Amino acid sequence: MPNMISDAFEPYLLRTFVAVCHHGSLSGAAQQAGRAQSALSAQIRRLEELLGQRLLRRTGRGVVPTTEGELLLSYATRILALGETVATRLKERTVMGTVRVGLSEDVAVTTLPAALGRLRRTCPHMHMEITVDHGDALAQRWHDGLLDVAIGVSSVFAADPVRTWNVPLYWVCAIDDEVDPALPLDVIVYAEPCAWRRLMFDALLAAGRDFRVTVTSPNVGVISAAVENGLGVALLPADNINPHTMRVIALAPAGNAALSVNYGLFAVPRQTESIRATVELLSEGFHLMTQPRVKGLSLCDTPPPTPAPAQ
Questions:
Q1: Do 179 and 185 meet the contact criterion of CB atoms below 8 Å apart?
Q2: Which residues are CB-contacts of 101 (< 8 A; sequence separation ≥ 6)?
Q3: Nearest to 151 by CA among 210, 191, 111, 94
């Protein structure tokens, strides 16, 4: 029996369970991990057998944890975080120092803060000064030498990025909203300056769609709330789309056009161990953010390229 219990808490089984709960589906977790859905399903069954409990139940939109699964999810998250902390504490050298990080407001939502939170847990002696701002202001802070690492729209930075990614953008509306093609389209936009806003307007003009701006905000939380409450259509990356409250739509005749914005990760040339650790974790987090995880892709069904060193 002791061996059975210890086997149940194998990190790879717990990571699979946490990932499936996070995505709300086996297919979403498998796609992000780059693995077969059947392999993840087998791991979940193995975990349920070892614990003697049913951990997930199916719904019309995927899977959700059972009561026992919710309890395991709480502990599994803490177990995995503790494992990362222990592994780091046992390293020969302790990562120390201060790193000044800048994140573009439109992407500083879930994945990137999670990456920084992981860095905080694994490198407790490192101090981070994190600034979240819109692209142009962030680029200016970089130009003024006030940041060590930054992620923002590549075109506004007068520097060469360490890594670049194309972030696919999806047209979304409220899950119960119906878009009437005969009426002007209500759109929800970021305040200027914003690359997403310009991309949206250009695409709508090219599609011959009449539109009117209903909500303007510099805050992604306001944009998401406006979409969820049926105030209009917005362009959002997969990481910002809540499948329980939002729906991905196609806006003909531009249904085959792929919309994306190029983002870069910028880092100072002379890097301390703290800066290198930050670059590594943010690169991993941003790569996960760009993976297509939205069902019913419309205008952005071209998968993003694997991040590579910028030339």
A1: yes
A2: 116, 128, 129, 130, 131, 147, 148, 149, 150, 278, 282
A3: 111
Nearest Cα to Cα of residue 298 among 173, 165, 181: 173
Look-up: residue for tokens 């503790």? 82
Give me the phi and psi of 309, to 5 degrees please.
-55, 135
Give the number of other Cβ atoms within 10 Å of residue 77's Cβ. 15
Q: What percent of the chain has pLDDT over 70?
A: 82
Cβ 14 vs Cβ 76: under 8 Å:
yes
Torsion, Cα 153 158 160 166, to 10 degrees, reads 20
Whose CA is closest to 259, among 227, 235, 284, 275?
235
Which amino acid, 178? E
Going by C-beta distance under 8 Å and a sequence separation of 6 or more, which residues neighbour residue 243?
24, 61, 294, 295
More confident residue, 294 or 66: 66
Determine whether 201 is exposed, middle or buried from the number of CB atoms within 10 Å of its CB (0-12, 13-18, 19+). middle
Say which residues have a Cβ less than 8 Å from residue 72's Cβ, sequence separation at least 6: 17, 51, 53, 55, 65
Query: Phi, psi at residue 301, to the nearest 5°?
Result: -90, 15
Q: Which helix (H) or strand (E) holds 152?
A: strand 149-153
Cα angle value 223/226/229 (rounded, 5°): 150
Burial class (CB in 10 A: 0-12, 13-18, 19+), 305: exposed
Residue 298 has pLDDT above 70, yes or no: no
* Structure tokens given for 240: 């910002």
Segments in the chain forming alpha helices (H): 2-8, 11-23, 26-33, 37-51, 67-89, 111-122, 135-143, 195-206, 220-228, 273-289
CA–CA separation, 126 and 274 (whole Å): 7
Q: What is the pLDDT of residues 143-169, one digit of tens each?
A: 999 999 998 889 889 889 988 888 888
Q: Which residues have a Cβ under 8 Å from the Cβ of 161 and sit 6 or more positions away? A: 154, 264, 265, 266, 310
